Amino acid sequence: MIHFQNVSKAYLGSKQPALQGLNFHLPVGSMTYLTGHSGAGKSTLLKLIMGMERANGGQIWFNGHDITRLSAYELPFLRRQIGMVHQDYRLLPDRSIVDNVALPLIIAGMHPKTARERALAMLDVVGLYNRAAHQPLHLSGGEQQRVDIARAVIHKPQLLLADEPTGNLDNALSFDIFSLFEEFNRMGMTVLIATHNIGLIQQKPKPCLVLEQGYLR
Ligand code: ADP
Ligand code: ADP
Protein backbone atom coordinates (compact mmCIF):
# COMPACT_ATOMS: atom_id res chain seq x y z
CA MET A 1 0.00 0.00 0.00
CA ILE A 2 2.90 2.37 0.85
CA HIS A 3 6.42 2.24 -0.57
CA PHE A 4 9.18 4.66 0.47
CA GLN A 5 12.03 4.68 -2.03
CA ASN A 6 15.16 6.55 -0.93
CA VAL A 7 13.04 9.29 0.69
CA SER A 8 14.73 12.31 2.27
CA LYS A 9 13.33 15.42 3.92
CA ALA A 10 15.23 18.51 5.06
CA TYR A 11 13.38 21.43 6.59
CA LEU A 12 14.35 24.88 5.32
CA GLY A 13 17.06 26.40 7.46
CA SER A 14 17.90 23.32 9.55
CA LYS A 15 21.43 21.92 9.48
CA GLN A 16 20.56 18.23 9.59
CA PRO A 17 17.92 16.52 7.41
CA ALA A 18 14.89 15.26 9.36
CA LEU A 19 14.78 12.04 7.27
CA GLN A 20 17.49 10.44 5.11
CA GLY A 21 17.37 7.67 2.49
CA LEU A 22 14.29 5.86 3.84
CA ASN A 23 13.26 2.59 2.18
CA PHE A 24 10.33 0.53 3.44
CA HIS A 25 7.04 -1.07 2.42
CA LEU A 26 3.74 -1.21 4.29
CA PRO A 27 1.66 -4.06 2.80
CA VAL A 28 -2.12 -3.73 2.48
CA GLY A 29 -3.78 -4.84 5.72
CA SER A 30 -0.62 -4.58 7.83
CA MET A 31 -0.29 -2.99 11.26
CA THR A 32 3.11 -1.41 11.97
CA TYR A 33 4.72 0.63 14.74
CA LEU A 34 6.98 3.60 14.13
CA THR A 35 9.34 4.26 17.04
CA GLY A 36 12.39 6.35 17.83
CA HIS A 37 13.46 9.07 20.23
CA SER A 38 11.90 12.51 20.23
CA GLY A 39 13.18 14.35 17.15
CA ALA A 40 13.99 11.13 15.25
CA GLY A 41 11.56 12.09 12.46
CA LYS A 42 8.37 10.16 13.25
CA SER A 43 5.96 13.07 12.79
CA THR A 44 7.78 14.15 9.64
CA LEU A 45 7.35 10.67 8.15
CA LEU A 46 3.59 10.74 8.87
CA LYS A 47 3.31 14.26 7.40
CA LEU A 48 4.99 13.09 4.17
CA ILE A 49 2.37 10.34 3.81
CA MET A 50 -0.45 12.85 4.45
CA GLY A 51 1.05 15.31 1.95
CA MET A 52 1.42 17.90 4.74
CA GLU A 53 5.17 18.15 4.04
CA ARG A 54 7.05 17.47 0.81
CA ALA A 55 10.04 15.17 0.40
CA ASN A 56 13.22 16.70 -1.03
CA GLY A 57 14.27 13.43 -2.61
CA GLY A 58 12.99 9.97 -3.45
CA GLN A 59 9.52 8.60 -4.19
CA ILE A 60 6.56 7.73 -1.99
CA TRP A 61 4.13 5.32 -3.63
CA PHE A 62 0.54 5.16 -2.34
CA ASN A 63 -1.36 2.37 -4.10
CA GLY A 64 0.96 2.70 -7.05
CA HIS A 65 0.79 6.51 -7.32
CA ASP A 66 3.82 8.66 -6.59
CA ILE A 67 2.49 11.18 -4.04
CA THR A 68 5.67 13.27 -3.82
CA ARG A 69 4.53 15.46 -6.69
CA LEU A 70 0.81 15.84 -6.09
CA SER A 71 -0.78 19.17 -6.99
CA ALA A 72 -2.95 21.13 -4.57
CA TYR A 73 -5.91 19.84 -6.58
CA GLU A 74 -4.92 16.17 -6.10
CA LEU A 75 -4.12 16.36 -2.35
CA PRO A 76 -7.73 16.05 -1.10
CA PHE A 77 -8.08 12.78 -3.05
CA LEU A 78 -5.06 11.39 -1.16
CA ARG A 79 -6.30 12.61 2.22
CA ARG A 80 -9.68 10.97 1.68
CA GLN A 81 -7.89 7.60 1.77
CA ILE A 82 -6.25 8.41 5.12
CA GLY A 83 -7.46 8.80 8.71
CA MET A 84 -5.28 10.61 11.24
CA VAL A 85 -5.32 10.24 15.04
CA HIS A 86 -3.56 12.87 17.19
CA GLN A 87 -1.96 12.81 20.62
CA ASP A 88 -4.05 15.77 21.77
CA TYR A 89 -7.43 14.64 20.31
CA ARG A 90 -8.22 18.04 18.66
CA LEU A 91 -11.98 17.82 19.16
CA LEU A 92 -14.20 20.86 18.69
CA PRO A 93 -15.19 21.84 22.26
CA ASP A 94 -18.45 23.57 21.35
CA ARG A 95 -19.93 20.60 19.47
CA SER A 96 -21.37 17.35 20.75
CA ILE A 97 -19.45 14.10 20.39
CA VAL A 98 -21.72 12.88 17.61
CA ASP A 99 -21.30 16.16 15.70
CA ASN A 100 -17.51 15.96 16.05
CA VAL A 101 -17.54 12.49 14.50
CA ALA A 102 -20.09 13.40 11.79
CA LEU A 103 -18.29 16.58 10.71
CA PRO A 104 -15.89 15.05 8.14
CA LEU A 105 -18.86 13.43 6.37
CA ILE A 106 -20.89 16.66 6.42
CA ILE A 107 -17.92 18.59 5.03
CA ALA A 108 -17.64 15.94 2.29
CA GLY A 109 -21.25 16.71 1.36
CA MET A 110 -23.28 14.03 3.13
CA HIS A 111 -26.73 14.97 4.41
CA PRO A 112 -26.32 15.86 8.13
CA LYS A 113 -29.00 13.38 9.25
CA THR A 114 -27.31 10.50 7.42
CA ALA A 115 -23.91 11.63 8.67
CA ARG A 116 -25.13 11.65 12.30
CA GLU A 117 -26.57 8.14 11.88
CA ARG A 118 -23.22 6.92 10.58
CA ALA A 119 -21.45 8.73 13.44
CA LEU A 120 -23.72 7.09 16.03
CA ALA A 121 -22.96 3.66 14.57
CA MET A 122 -19.23 4.43 14.77
CA LEU A 123 -19.57 5.67 18.37
CA ASP A 124 -21.14 2.30 19.13
CA VAL A 125 -18.04 0.56 17.69
CA VAL A 126 -15.73 2.58 19.96
CA GLY A 127 -18.00 2.10 23.01
CA LEU A 128 -19.31 5.65 23.35
CA TYR A 129 -22.85 5.42 21.96
CA ASN A 130 -24.36 6.59 25.25
CA ARG A 131 -22.11 9.70 25.36
CA ALA A 132 -23.09 10.92 21.88
CA ALA A 133 -24.86 14.06 23.09
CA HIS A 134 -22.09 15.11 25.51
CA GLN A 135 -19.49 17.78 24.80
CA PRO A 136 -15.84 16.68 24.56
CA LEU A 137 -14.74 18.33 27.82
CA HIS A 138 -17.21 16.21 29.78
CA LEU A 139 -15.30 13.09 28.68
CA SER A 140 -12.14 11.56 30.14
CA GLY A 141 -8.89 11.60 28.15
CA GLY A 142 -9.34 7.97 27.10
CA GLU A 143 -12.87 8.67 25.92
CA GLN A 144 -11.78 11.76 23.99
CA GLN A 145 -9.13 9.66 22.25
CA ARG A 146 -11.86 7.17 21.24
CA VAL A 147 -13.84 10.04 19.73
CA ASP A 148 -10.75 11.19 17.80
CA ILE A 149 -10.35 7.63 16.46
CA ALA A 150 -14.05 7.39 15.53
CA ARG A 151 -13.72 10.68 13.63
CA ALA A 152 -10.52 9.47 11.91
CA VAL A 153 -12.19 6.32 10.55
CA ILE A 154 -15.73 7.63 9.88
CA HIS A 155 -14.98 8.01 6.14
CA LYS A 156 -13.63 4.41 5.99
CA PRO A 157 -10.04 5.26 5.04
CA GLN A 158 -7.71 2.59 3.65
CA LEU A 159 -4.88 3.83 5.86
CA LEU A 160 -5.04 4.85 9.53
CA LEU A 161 -2.13 6.92 10.88
CA ALA A 162 -1.61 7.79 14.55
CA ASP A 163 0.96 10.15 16.09
CA GLU A 164 1.63 9.23 19.76
CA PRO A 165 -2.04 8.30 20.29
CA THR A 166 -1.48 7.22 23.90
CA GLY A 167 0.96 9.98 24.87
CA ASN A 168 -1.49 11.40 27.41
CA LEU A 169 -3.00 8.14 28.70
CA ASP A 170 -2.13 5.64 31.43
CA ASN A 171 -1.28 2.00 30.70
CA ALA A 172 -4.72 0.43 30.98
CA LEU A 173 -6.31 3.08 28.74
CA SER A 174 -3.42 2.82 26.27
CA PHE A 175 -3.95 -0.94 26.01
CA ASP A 176 -7.63 -0.36 25.15
CA ILE A 177 -6.72 2.21 22.51
CA PHE A 178 -4.22 -0.19 20.87
CA SER A 179 -6.90 -2.91 20.96
CA LEU A 180 -9.17 -0.55 19.07
CA PHE A 181 -6.47 -0.04 16.40
CA GLU A 182 -6.19 -3.83 16.14
CA GLU A 183 -9.95 -4.04 15.64
CA PHE A 184 -9.89 -1.59 12.73
CA ASN A 185 -6.87 -3.43 11.33
CA ARG A 186 -8.88 -6.69 11.43
CA MET A 187 -11.64 -4.88 9.49
CA GLY A 188 -9.05 -4.33 6.73
CA MET A 189 -7.46 -0.96 7.43
CA THR A 190 -3.70 -0.62 7.09
CA VAL A 191 -2.42 0.93 10.34
CA LEU A 192 0.77 2.85 11.18
CA ILE A 193 1.24 4.06 14.77
CA ALA A 194 4.07 6.36 15.87
CA THR A 195 4.63 5.60 19.54
CA HIS A 196 7.08 5.75 22.44
CA ASN A 197 5.08 3.16 24.35
CA ILE A 198 7.61 0.30 24.52
CA GLY A 199 5.54 -1.59 27.13
CA LEU A 200 2.58 -1.78 24.77
CA ILE A 201 4.74 -2.77 21.80
CA GLN A 202 5.93 -5.72 23.87
CA GLN A 203 2.37 -6.64 24.90
CA LYS A 204 1.09 -6.42 21.32
CA PRO A 205 4.05 -7.25 19.05
CA LYS A 206 3.88 -6.09 15.40
CA PRO A 207 6.41 -5.16 12.74
CA CYS A 208 8.33 -2.08 13.83
CA LEU A 209 10.08 0.73 11.94
CA VAL A 210 12.79 2.28 14.14
CA LEU A 211 14.05 5.79 13.34
CA GLU A 212 17.39 7.06 14.65
CA GLN A 213 18.15 10.70 13.85
CA GLY A 214 16.38 10.49 10.51
CA TYR A 215 17.68 7.06 9.46
CA LEU A 216 15.76 3.78 9.56
CA ARG A 217 17.64 1.27 11.65
P1 ADP B 1 9.57 13.11 16.13
O1 ADP B 1 8.15 13.10 15.67
O2 ADP B 1 10.23 11.78 16.04
O3 ADP B 1 9.74 13.73 17.47
P2 ADP B 1 9.93 15.18 14.13
O4 ADP B 1 9.57 14.61 12.81
O5 ADP B 1 8.93 16.05 14.81
O6 ADP B 1 10.41 14.02 15.09
O7 ADP B 1 11.26 16.03 13.96
C1 ADP B 1 12.41 15.55 13.27
C2 ADP B 1 13.43 16.67 13.16
O8 ADP B 1 12.94 17.70 12.32
C3 ADP B 1 13.75 17.35 14.49
O9 ADP B 1 15.11 17.71 14.50
C4 ADP B 1 12.87 18.57 14.47
O10 ADP B 1 13.43 19.60 15.25
C5 ADP B 1 12.85 18.93 13.00
N1 ADP B 1 11.61 19.59 12.60
C6 ADP B 1 10.37 19.10 12.72
N2 ADP B 1 9.46 19.95 12.20
C7 ADP B 1 10.16 21.01 11.74
C8 ADP B 1 9.81 22.24 11.09
N3 ADP B 1 8.52 22.53 10.79
N4 ADP B 1 10.80 23.10 10.77
C9 ADP B 1 12.09 22.81 11.04
N5 ADP B 1 12.49 21.67 11.64
C10 ADP B 1 11.54 20.79 11.99
P1 ADP C 1 0.79 -4.01 -1.62
O1 ADP C 1 0.41 -2.87 -0.75
O2 ADP C 1 -0.26 -5.04 -1.78
O3 ADP C 1 2.13 -4.57 -1.25
P2 ADP C 1 2.15 -2.43 -3.54
O4 ADP C 1 2.08 -1.15 -2.83
O5 ADP C 1 3.40 -3.25 -3.48
O6 ADP C 1 0.93 -3.36 -3.07
O7 ADP C 1 1.81 -2.20 -5.03
C1 ADP C 1 0.76 -1.35 -5.43
C2 ADP C 1 1.06 -0.86 -6.84
O8 ADP C 1 2.16 0.05 -6.80
C3 ADP C 1 1.47 -2.00 -7.78
O9 ADP C 1 0.84 -1.78 -9.02
C4 ADP C 1 2.97 -1.82 -7.89
O10 ADP C 1 3.45 -2.29 -9.12
C5 ADP C 1 3.14 -0.32 -7.77
N1 ADP C 1 4.48 0.00 -7.24
C6 ADP C 1 4.95 -0.30 -6.01
N2 ADP C 1 6.19 0.13 -5.86
C7 ADP C 1 6.55 0.70 -7.02
C8 ADP C 1 7.72 1.33 -7.48
N3 ADP C 1 8.82 1.41 -6.73
N4 ADP C 1 7.73 1.82 -8.72
C9 ADP C 1 6.64 1.74 -9.48
N5 ADP C 1 5.47 1.16 -9.09
C10 ADP C 1 5.44 0.65 -7.89
From TrEMBL:
<dbReference type="GO" id="GO:0016887">
    <property type="term" value="F:ATP hydrolysis activity"/>
</dbReference>
<dbReference type="GO" id="GO:0005524">
    <property type="term" value="F:ATP binding"/>
</dbReference>
<dbReference type="GO" id="GO:0051301">
    <property type="term" value="P:cell division"/>
</dbReference>
<dbReference type="InterPro" id="IPR017871">
    <property type="entry name" value="ABC_transporter-like_CS"/>
</dbReference>
<dbReference type="InterPro" id="IPR027417">
    <property type="entry name" value="P-loop_NTPase"/>
</dbReference>
<dbReference type="GO" id="GO:0005886">
    <property type="term" value="C:plasma membrane"/>
</dbReference>
<dbReference type="Pfam" id="PF00005">
    <property type="entry name" value="ABC_tran"/>
</dbReference>
<dbReference type="InterPro" id="IPR005286">
    <property type="entry name" value="Cell_div_FtsE"/>
</dbReference>
<dbReference type="InterPro" id="IPR015854">
    <property type="entry name" value="ABC_transpr_LolD-like"/>
</dbReference>
<keyword id="KW-0131">Cell cycle</keyword>
<dbReference type="GO" id="GO:0022857">
    <property type="term" value="F:transmembrane transporter activity"/>
</dbReference>
<keyword id="KW-0472">Membrane</keyword>
<dbReference type="InterPro" id="IPR003439">
    <property type="entry name" value="ABC_transporter-like_ATP-bd"/>
</dbReference>
<keyword id="KW-0067">ATP-binding</keyword>
<comment type="similarity">
    <text>Belongs to the ABC transporter superfamily.</text>
</comment>
<keyword id="KW-0813">Transport</keyword>
<comment type="subunit">
    <text>Homodimer. Forms a membrane-associated complex with FtsX.</text>
</comment>
<keyword id="KW-0547">Nucleotide-binding</keyword>
<comment type="function">
    <text>Part of the ABC transporter FtsEX involved in cellular division. Important for assembly or stability of the septal ring.</text>
</comment>
<feature type="domain" description="ABC transporter">
    <location>
        <begin position="2"/>
        <end position="217"/>
    </location>
</feature>
<dbReference type="InterPro" id="IPR003593">
    <property type="entry name" value="AAA+_ATPase"/>
</dbReference>
<dbReference type="InterPro" id="IPR017911">
    <property type="entry name" value="MacB-like_ATP-bd"/>
</dbReference>
<protein>
    <recommendedName>
        <fullName>Cell division ATP-binding protein FtsE</fullName>
    </recommendedName>
</protein>
<keyword id="KW-1003">Cell membrane</keyword>
<keyword id="KW-0132">Cell division</keyword>
